[in-house]
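Pilot study result, target chain (155 residues):
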Amino acid sequence: MQDVRRARTTDHTTLVECVQRWWGDSRTQEQARELSLLLPRLFLQHFADTSLVLEDVRGIRAFLVGFHSADHADQAYIHFVGVGPELRQQGVARRLYTTFFERAAAAGRTEVRAITSPHNTGSIAFHRALGFTPSAPIADYDGPALDRVTFRRAL
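Predicted structure:
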């Protein structure tokens, strides 16, 4: 049985290891390490209550790091999601997103946002399937040559 629980700061090291291992099949070791840098400890120090971990007897199997915006009281944001390769295409990410949506709505949030690279067609398709509306690619969104697609979904 896999349980979804609130994240803890002590999950950080394991989540970083998961990112490096889970994305190691599609990236070089260095690229997977760089990707894990998008998940600094501060996210779990400040947003553990709004972040989710799915685990079973084998340990952490998936996670979602998200938060409620401090500047926009109606918004929540999903920052990073990871699902172990053996659980992909089984509705695990959808389960994490749905749980996040329910908790955000219960906290009075009416919109969820996220971003991805315009080249990440799988992520774009997944977000569309969950009811997100994507933007056109936004040039230099995260810096020079770091274009992004933004997503919005009403709750």
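One observation from the pilot: Helices lie at 12-22, 29-36, 42-47, 92-106, 121-129. A full batch analysis is planned for the follow-on phase.
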